[in-house]
Specification:
Blueprint (H helix, E strand, L loop, with lengths): L5 H14 L50 H6 L2 H6 L15 H7 L13 H8 L23 E5 L11 H5 L3 E5 L8 H4 L5 E4 L1 H11 L14 E4 L4 H12 L36 H10 L18 E3 L2 H10 L18 H10 L4 E5 L29 H13 L4 E2 L3
Parallel strand pairs: 1-2, 1-6, 2-3, 3-4, 4-5, 6-7
Helix pairs in contact: 1-10, 5-9
The structure holds 2-acetamido-2-deoxy-beta-D-glucopyranose (5 copies).
Length: about 400
């Protein structure tokens, strides 16, 4: 969730829309007015043949010890039972990379695949994800896994302002956060614990730019914290590789960024605030980033940036989520290529496929209009629905999963 703010971004959005010869439509429940199915639509056939090898989200599910495991709630629900496949691999690690995987995923555009990306770039990144931790979300680094893995996923919705949910959030075994996850000054409302931080390079950098003046001055860091890369672009693979190697990004729009602090390099100051938001289209963003040049390099991931610190969502998992849970009507419009599940949705669905119990905080609810877009805003800003995400569809999904007892959605 993160509509653009300020006239600059509006202008850029409109320019982007105009250039593509399309009308930038704000959300309405009727997407009918859009032109019919676009030609050259992505091949949306998904089958179980995308994985070179058998894997599981092993070591994560110990539900027999849970009082109310979500897997049981799924089994009891005819609709969701048909959607969930809890064996679908959530993460992609080096051991899964093979020719067959390349051949199948190179048919699909990022974030669902590797169409147009170089084999060498993908292979060189994945071959670094060879740590045993890379294939599991909850790697037992010395610590035994709890018998019942309880997770909180903290979105950035305005519903959390004044919620006093901090202690409840921190009481979970694992806490997922994403994008502009401001903590300082909001500890009572959002807690302090962060086990996972999820992002695309695009949303991360733009959160730093857009919310820097609201307190998001650095990406969360910590010894026990793990990063979940959403592979929405070649940038994510390149940044991930540089982060593991501890070298500056060698190429592309992030060239010169020093993702991990290495001996002798100091963290650069946060980039200055600007008018654009994490969900602005890339074209608008590119225009902006050349117009507001922040000091570089920015250090993102802290000092101990070893391979085990980074997780990569499997492109096929993202495709599976889109097909089964978030198959938006927007996909059949001229905006189809802009559409993908939001970062928050990807994190919440990741938790639902790996934890035994999941609570969602700061996610969109039916009374979203009562709250500001984000909890950390100083002045109330309405949530605006853009065409790159389908927040209405996501809201319905969270409500239905809550009703089915599969997750607990914080509402007020
Ligand atoms: C989609 O991919 C499948 C499997 O590769 C293929 O059989 C099918 O013809 C493709 N459909 C389209 C519309 O390209
Ligand atoms: C669930 O996913 C696994 C892994 O991809 C696959 O082997 C299995 O056939 C799937 N199960 C169903 C019922 O689709
Ligand atoms: C990936 O690259 C490594 C060398 O870095 C090579 O040994 C391996 O065979 C490559 N993988 C594939 C599937 O070609
Ligand atoms: C992973 O790959 C790197 C670089 O190729 C190598 O140095 C390291 O020993 C490998 N680690 C494991 C656990 O195989
Ligand atoms: C946050 O909540 C306080 C009251 O708890 C309210 O006064 C303030 O306007 C809210 N901020 C926004 C941006 O809605």
């Amino acid at each position: 969730m993160g509509p653009p703010r300020g006239p600059l971004c509006w202008l850029l959005l409109l320019l982007t829309a105009a250039c593509s010869g399309i009308l930038l439509a704000l959300y309405s429940s009727a997407v009918g007015p859009y032109p019919g199915p676009r030609s050259g639509a992505r091949n949306a056939t998904w089958s179980g043949t995308f994985f070179g090898r058998e894997v599981s989200n092993a070591g994560t599910r110990k539900s027999p010890h849970c009082r109310h495991p979500l897997s049981l709630a799924i089994q009891k629900h005819p609709h969701f039972r048909a959607l969930f496949n809890l064996s679908t691999p959530v993460l992609l690690s080096g051991g899964l990379f093979a020719r067959e995987l390349w051949d199948s995923l190179s048919q699909y555009k990022a974030p669902y695949g590797w169409q147009g990306l170089s084999f060498q770039a993908i292979n060189s990144t994945l071959s670094l994800l060879n740590d045993s931790e890379s294939s599991k979300l909850f790697a037992a680094s010395g610590k035994p896994l709890p018998n019942c893995v309880r997770c909180a996923v903290v979105g950035n919705g305005g519903i959390l302002n004044g919620s006093r949910q901090g202690l409840n959030i921190d009481a979970h075994d694992y806490v997922f956060r994403l994008n502009g996850a401001v903590i300082k000054g909001f500890e009572k409302d959002v807690g302090t614990k962060t086990s996972f931080y999820g992002f695309t390079v695009n949303t991360m950098k733009n959160s730093l730019i857009s919310y820097g003046n609201l307190g998001f001055t650095s990406v969360p860091q910590g010894q026990d914290l793990r990063y979940i890369f959403i592979p929405s672009d070649i940038r994510d693979y390149v940044m991930l590789r540089s982060a593991i190697l501890g070298v500056p990004v060698p190429e592309g729009p992030d060239r010169g960024d020093s993702p991990a602090r290495t001996a002798g390099t100091a963290a650069g100051p946060a980039p200055p605030p600007s008018a654009c938001s994490p969900t602005c289209p890339t074209t608008a963003r590119a225009a902006l980033s050349t117009s507001s040049t922040g000091p570089r390099p920015q250090t993102y991931f802290g000092p101990e940036a070893s391979a085990g610190k980074f997780k990569l969502l499997h492109p096929h998992f993202i495709g599976y989520l889109r097909e089964r849970f978030l198959k938006s009507k927007l996909m059949n419009t001229n905006f189809g290529d802009l559409y993908m599940p939001s970062t928050g949705a990807l994190m919440l669905l990741t938790a639902l496929h790996t934890c035994d119990q999941v609570s969602a905080y700061g996610f969109i609810t039916s009374n979203y209009w009562k709250f500001s877009d984000h909890y950390f805003e100083r002045i109330k800003k309405p949530l605006i629905f853009y065409v790159n995400h389908d927040l209405s569809l996501e809201a319905t999904l969270w409500k239905d999963l809550h009703k089915a007892g599969i997750l607990r959605l914080y509402q007020r």
